[in-house]
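Subject: Interface between my chains keeps coming out wrong

I've been trying for a while to get a sensible model of this assembly. When I model each chain on its own everything looks fine, but I need the whole thing in one frame so I can look at the contacts. Pasting all components below, labels as-is. Any help appreciated, I'm running out of ideas.
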Amino acid sequence: MNFMFWLIAIITLGSALMMVMNKNIFHSALFMVVTFLGVAAVYLMLYADFMAAVQVLVYAGAITIFIVFGIMLTQRGNMKETNLFSNHAALAGIVSLALVVINAVMVVSTNWPKTGAEPPQETVGSIAELMLTKYVVPFEVAAILLLVALIGAVIIAKEVKKTS
Amino acid sequence: MEIFNTIANGLRDWLMGSLGFSATATEIITTAVWTLVAILFVMINLIILVWMERKLAAYFQLRRGPNRLGPAGFLQFPVDIVKVLGKEDIIPANADRFIFKIASTCAFITSLTAFAVIPFSEGVALLQNLNIGIFYFIAVGSTATLSLLMGGWSSNNKYSLLGGMRTVAQMISYEIPMVFSLLGVVMIAGSLNLTDIVNAQKNTWFVIPQLIAFIVFFIAATAELNRGPFDLAEGEQELVAGYMTEYSGIRWAIYMIAEYGNLVASSAIISIMFLGGWNAPFGLTFIPPFLWLMLKIYLVIFVFMWIRWTLPRIRIDHLMHFGWKFLIPVSLANILVTGIGVYVYRMITL
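Reply #2:
Try treating it as a single job with all components included. I did that and got this:
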């Protein structure tokens, strides 16, 4: 199992790196799909099968396709220099370093709960129960947020005409 | 169909016992063997389906179809495979070479992964204990769009690009009613596991209480499969051949294999979700469950082909309107009605 974890980790992180480093933005988007699939594989190794499927459906299936769609609609003759680096390497380096340090400190200092219990056979039922009882308000708020975004997108696309 | 599990368990015992492999290695090898079986299954179906499609298309159009090679032209397709293998593999000069090369293979892989959850009879599936079976199928199916898009984009051809974009627009639009229509079945069966769903249909097939969902799913699946009358992604009159315009030889053939693989997978899902899976109707249990499922799959495929060769292609804006303004509201209403129905049923029985 350890070997599989390292394989998945290397593929995920490698493709994430390739996504940033690649000069061609379409290739970057495709590397992003590999990264998302790698994250789904990590979820699977943690026995979170529902999360893994959601990851594939939402990220690898929907989000990247919209990104690729956007790229295709703005296609140029030459795709070589479409994913450029900015000139603020030093600033970006500092921000990234700070983020890595904060994350590392959080991971190390958190007291992770450990149990010897077997992982649950079925996760869907318990997720549904929690979502519709204990976390029903955040769940509904998220739904309303998405609805607002949807209506906003429709309004932007349709360009509401001013009534005189 | 017990024989498959017997073989799989025998293989496992042999690898672990006689050859002394570790548990992980055994699992990997067994999965590889299962995958090979799945590929073989797709290939055998492909040979039958291509012949069937040509013959049926011909009969629907009052022609004879292939009739020279073999009985009723059955050997035409194997000969075509040899021809395709011998063809030159053309890659356009300005294509994105690497993506162009892997795009068709990606399409084939996504079509193959769907077969992992399809139970061919009680307990005969690669991932038989997957609790989220139908959700896995939907998730894997949603990534299929990307490989078509890769082909359309990397060809560096206007027609391919337009075909790819149409594919995306169409598949995203029709994925929503497809998923929503399956929810009704999941609500009645109370499980996402495909084996449980089939077992819940021992008495009544879900096509009867979920007729609307069945029709919506069938229409959405036709659109997802890019088959007529929704084959706008490769509408010949306007787009040559859509995303696979530049493809030739074996890479084109792999795209076709993926397409027929998706056809078999979707038909299998329709048979499992709505038509009772391997359950025998009218108590005709002397026919083995596997054959019943295959019979149902081929019945569904026949209807797909019937529709494809009978109805004319519809226009792209009509397609979008139909998807967003008709199918989605209908499937949402179906969920509401099913929910109320399930609630009332529980109140009465409990």
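Reply #3:
Confirming on my end. Helices of chain A lie at 2-21, 25-45, 49-73, 89-109, 124-132, 136-158.
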